[in-house]
Amino acid sequence: MVKDLTIAIPTYNRNDFLIKILDTIPNNELVVISDNGGSVTEDIINKHPGFLFVKPPEKLEMFENWNFCINKVQTKWFIIPSDDDLFYVNAFSKINAAIEKYDDADIIIFGHNTIDEFDNVLSVWSPHEIKILEKPNGYNYFKYGVEARLPSIIFKTDFAKSYGFFDESYVFTAADSLLIQKCMLNGKAVLLPDIISAYRIWQNNFTSKYISSKEWLLKIDKWQDEIAQDVKIVYGNLNLTINSSHIKDEVYANNLLAGIVNKKSKYGFKEAFIFVKSVRFPWRAKFITKLKIIKALLIK
């Protein structure tokens, strides 16, 4: 059992996948499951009598349910996978060793595999080596986008709570990246190369549905504006400088590029061009990224 850790799992009407992730967690771990859809069956509950199953008083939006689940945590640390993610063998022994060794950390990040709905590994991400990053150097590690994923991130509960957990004003993107960046900007971050989890993506997930939309890019700008405010304060107090406007446009540019590719693959070149005309152009992004955007538009 991992001392002082809770696995918080928000779920919504995905019992088949919830069963799979629960089966990768030892029954002696502290687990809380927020059943947002009210669909978790007695069979699942009875199979894991030591786990806490809770129901929100009403159906919640995604990030609201995540926060509802985390607010049940009473331990020093928590991890919040989605109900369709998986943990690997020895994941919790590695987590236990990490929080014992790096007790003064505020966020600990491991590697992960990205898998599809059939458990096929699509990609792998992990830090190349152990990194211990003091305030504010963790922000620099992920300033152009957070590559780590939640089933491999251990948060110190009180520290994450001081930033309000996940910002519920976001609907389908960025609230997780914003919290991770705030923790890495303001606290001590430890990155470890071990791969402990599988993060699942779906063929028609939120990202593929909305990334080629103006609404998506507006949320990206909102996220960057919010973290830039924190960066300005922290860097100013440390007499450091950073060009947040260039970072903002680079993050925007990469999302715009992904949106163009997505729009072209689904609806063709004409719709991709209309999409680009409907949004701002990230002039302060890196030259190579702007070139990629232009190339994506010119090559059918």
UniProtKB/TrEMBL annotation:
Gene3D superfamilies: Spore Coat Polysaccharide Biosynthesis Protein SpsA, Chain A. Residues 6-114 form the Glycosyltransferase 2-like domain. Keywords: Transferase. InterPro entries: Glyco_trans_2-like, Nucleotide-diphossugar_trans. One of its GO terms (molecular function) is transferase activity. This is Glycosyl transferase family 2. The lineage of its organism: Bacteria, Pseudomonadati, Bacteroidota, Sphingobacteriia, Sphingobacteriales.
